[in-house]
Each structure stands twice: as C-alpha cells, then as structure tokens.
Amino acid sequence: MMNMAIGGKRTARQAIAGTDSKWKVLDGIIIPGVPPEFELPPISGGGNDYGFIEERRDAFVAAGKPYTLPVSIVMPVYNRKDILAKTIAALCRQNYPLELMELVVADDGSSDGVEEVIEKYRRFLPIRHAFQEDRGYRLAEVRNLGIRTASHDHLILLDCDMLPVPELVASFMAFLHVTEQAILIGHRRFVRTDHLSDDDILTDITLATHLPDVVPENPSFDDDSSKNPIHDGAARKAGQPDVPRTGDWRLPLYGKTDYLKRSIAPFVVCSGGNLAFPRSLAERAGPFCEEFRAWGAEDTEWAYRVFDAGFYFIPVPRTVGLHQEPPGGRNEIDRVAGRAVTQPLMEDRCPLVFRDYVPHRVNSVPKFSVYMPAYNCARYIAQAVDSVLAQDFTDLEVCIVDDGSTDDTLERLERRYKNNPRVRWSTQERGGIGKASNAAARMCRAPYIGQLDADDMLKSHAVRTMVDYLDTHNVGCVYGNYEYIDADGRFLRPGREWPVFSREMLSLSMIVHHFRAFRKRDWNRTSGFDEHLENSVDYEMFIRLSEVCAIAHIPRDVMYLYRWHGLNTSIARYDQQCRNHVRVIRRALQRTGLDRTWELHVPEPLDLEALEYYRRRPLDLDKVES
C-alpha cells in the first residue's frame, strides 16, 4: 500500500461575506494556514503554452547575438534529381551561416543521378549522402537513416520538394538557440517551378519566392481533403472550417488555438516535410515507425510520441517551404492507396484524436494505463487488477512493478493473467515506493495514466470518467473521490474531500485524492517520483505536477475503494510520514524560491492540520541569503 493521503483532513469552510479572514480565500473557501498575501508563482508552460520559449527567442533576436549552433538538414529523396537540385540551390541562399549548415541527402534508392546533384553543390556546403537500397516506399526508414547520419545535435527535416525561403533555417535556429524543449513546425505554399532551373534559383532566389500559389492536383489535396486526409480527419473532428485549396490547412486551427497554445492535441499539425528539433527529442521520442511502408501518417504517429514525451509544438510562420508541384501536377505516389494501408496503423498506435472507441478491442497502444507498484500484496492484488479489467471502458492496460515481494505476488499474477494482453508486469529488487512507481509509470504506453495501489480497487466507471474529462479539458491531471473499505472489502466510511482544487491548499495538504490520473506528457515534464523518500511520495509528485500543469477535481464522484487494513504505510509509519510531509513542503518552497519570503511553521508536537506559512523576519532573510 502506498502512502495515505494524510494532511488532507482539514475541513473546508465557506468564507462569510463582508468579514475579514486571517487566511486566504479562494472561490469563497478559506484556505487554512495560507495568509492572504501568500502567492504561488504562476505555471509556466502549462499544456502547449510555449510563450515562455517565445520570450527567450525574442530576447535572443533583439540582442543581436550571432548564431553559433551547427545544424544538419536531413532531406529525403527518391528519383527527383531536378527538384532536389532546386531545393539545394535555395538552401545555399539561406540567411543562416553556410559554415554552420550540413546537408544530409537521405536517398531511398534513387537511380536517376542524384549523385550528380550532390557533387555539384558540395562546393557550397558539406553534403553527406546516406543511401539505402530501393525496396519500395520506405520514407520512415530513410528519415531515420538521415538522422543517424547527421553530424550535429540540431536537425531540420526538409523534403526534397520543399524549396526553402531564405529565412527558413535562421527562423528555426533562433528557437533552437534558446530551447531543447520543442519541435518547430514549418509551413508551406504550393508553387510550380517547371520553368526554372536550379542555376536560376542559385542566381536569384526571388524567382522562386515570388512565384504565385497554385492549386495542387494530387488526390490527397483535392476538394475538402486539401491536406493529408488523416490530418483532415483531425481537423474535421476539431470543427475547423474549410481552407483555400492553395493555403496551409493548419491556419484555421492556429486561429482558434492561438497558434496551438490552447490546443489539447497539437501534434495533429505535424507534417514531416518541414520540421526542426534537437537530437535529444528524437532520442526521447524514438525513431519514425518503420512499419509505415506506404504514403502518409508516419509523421503524425511519430509526433504523437513527441507529444507524450513532453515537448512543445511551436508553429514558426516564417519557415515557409515552397512545395514544388510535380510536372503535370500529379505525383507518382498513389496517396489514396497508401492511406488505406497506413490509416489502420495510425489508429492502432495513436489513441488520441484518430481512434474511435471499440469495446474490447486490444490496440498496440491503449488509451489508458493504470500503474500499480506492488510489494507483498498477494492477498489483494487479484482484486485490484480485476477491478481494472471490469471497467466499462476497455481500451486500457494494467502495468505492475513488483518491488521485490517475498510472498507469492508474482506467482498469483502469472497464474491468473499470463495470457491476458491487458496485464503486464515486471519485477525489481526492493527499491521502495518511488522507484517502483517510476518503473511502473515508465512501463505505461497510454497517454492517460491512473494510479491504483495493489490492495485497493476501482469502481467500474472510474477510467471512463477520467478519459472523458481528459479528452475534453486542457488539464494535465484530474482526480475524483474515494471511500474507505475494510480488509474484507466492506464499506467503512466516506473519504475526505476538499471541494475544489487549489494549489495553495495542496501546498500544505494532500488534497489530490484517489482516483487520480494524469497525462503522460505532463508527468514527463517532471523529474518523476522521488526515489529517496520512503513515504509521502505521492504528495511530492502531485505538488511537482501542479507546478507544470493545471489540475482539476471532479467533486462528489466516488471512483476508488481505499482499503484500510491496519498495515497501511500511513498507519504503520505515521510519524515518519508526517516528517516527510513537512520535508516535501519545505523542498517545494525552495524549488519555487518562496523560501526567501516564507517559512513553514511546524507546531510541536507535530500536527499536520496546524501547519501554517509565516512571513520571514529580516534576520531570517539574511540566513536564506547566506
């Protein structure tokens, strides 16, 4: 059993209108122990709000600092020698220092003389030729090959038919000079360059940049499908209006979401033909999935994993690629047939936006994961797991980490669930609650993750309630309420519930009750569970989550059965848990810099319900400075 949510026992009191309170009042409720002038720093970067990164970029540009970071441009190609030459010619006319640029031509088995183009342009910039045999459409594989071949730690993916405007590389790199936390999304216009040669463009880049927009004639860009149809489906679900057939399909979505800052699923706009990111992003999210061997969706599936890994999606309007429509206007790739192959793969691997719920279908990536650290829970663990499998939402999995149990916990899992694809487990040497929780959370494949202790149970609607909320609200964490049961599962009493979420209240008391769920993206923006705390681990984790994302409470909805059997950590090690509770609060004050102004008053004997913040005296401030 993980640590009990102690410190959440204070009773909420409504503030009386017209009276002064010694304590802060939020939403009409008194926050005991928190003075009115106590202010937590605002969340910076909640959801996809990348404004703090924009501010750094603006400061970098305003300071006139020189560019110093080298960049590798990875350019996939297959038998498009002439179009490739025009794109490279435009790359040689960038505003970014050429000595900081490397081109990697990622060749999917071309036979039309791509090597001649490479040799021609080696006098302008370093070029690497990464070649793989022609074994059919392998765009995902050749992109991965190009990334592996690249020398530098900052990367631009640019398709060979995306002729870059002069400011493309510099506009991307202005961001990459100030952040490693984002993927940068370029834009496109459709043009025809049939009448231009690469020498023309090398001599005068404006011959290309001043070209008029044209209407693409490929089936995937026709009529109401003016973009990748999988992306089009995402836009339709988001209620986006039609866009001009010559325009970038993402612009209406940008207008509705403040350029994705308010988007709940920003990864849907990610198109692999014009992107920039740090190599560390590719290492965390993993390579493009090489099972995609037909046109479409490999970039969106990869972007979904980038999203889950915690990165921000930033549109950069100045990074325009001029999409060179092929001679005659039609592409040799059968995109409609390709889509028929890749869309089912996409739905299987991307549970957000693109997948419709089908009861009892097992997907490679479920929509909801329940993580469960376990230690000597043989008596109860089957009841816990079965309560998950009995949910009325079945697109889920259970991820269990056995923390060195000495009873038959593992044997019971093996006997009961060895053939159940929704139940997965691993074991480790005894490492404590934090280490087991980290291992279990990392095992989770879903974008939404809920917590269940190995001796507790969920009510049958718990997961569906969390999924419905997270699908429709731009928050990183949501929680409901619980009730106590005894060792035999009989009702004991209602759980304690703080009526509304308050960061200020959480700063003193664990009010994020069971059942609770969070986005993998936001958990990945924290440092994970503290592996050095023996208890109060959950309290420390949810304070950290409150620093990076919005948290919401679903009031009066009992979803969780908390078993009170007498061996709970909160009972067996109550004194230690109280001390760690205080330690967690003080560390949070230090992390946010509030310890310079405020200190935690801890009464003797220790009473968690009597914790208060005191403003530091001048002498105390001197001690903090030293």
Automatic annotation (TrEMBL):
<feature type="compositionally biased region" description="Basic and acidic residues">
    <location>
        <begin position="224"/>
        <end position="235"/>
    </location>
</feature>
<dbReference type="InterPro" id="IPR029044">
    <property type="entry name" value="Nucleotide-diphossugar_trans"/>
</dbReference>
<feature type="region of interest" description="Disordered">
    <location>
        <begin position="217"/>
        <end position="244"/>
    </location>
</feature>
<feature type="domain" description="Glycosyltransferase 2-like">
    <location>
        <begin position="369"/>
        <end position="508"/>
    </location>
</feature>
<protein>
    <submittedName>
        <fullName>Chondroitin synthase</fullName>
    </submittedName>
</protein>
<dbReference type="InterPro" id="IPR050834">
    <property type="entry name" value="Glycosyltransf_2"/>
</dbReference>
<dbReference type="Pfam" id="PF00535">
    <property type="entry name" value="Glycos_transf_2"/>
</dbReference>
<feature type="domain" description="Glycosyltransferase 2-like">
    <location>
        <begin position="72"/>
        <end position="192"/>
    </location>
</feature>
<dbReference type="InterPro" id="IPR001173">
    <property type="entry name" value="Glyco_trans_2-like"/>
</dbReference>
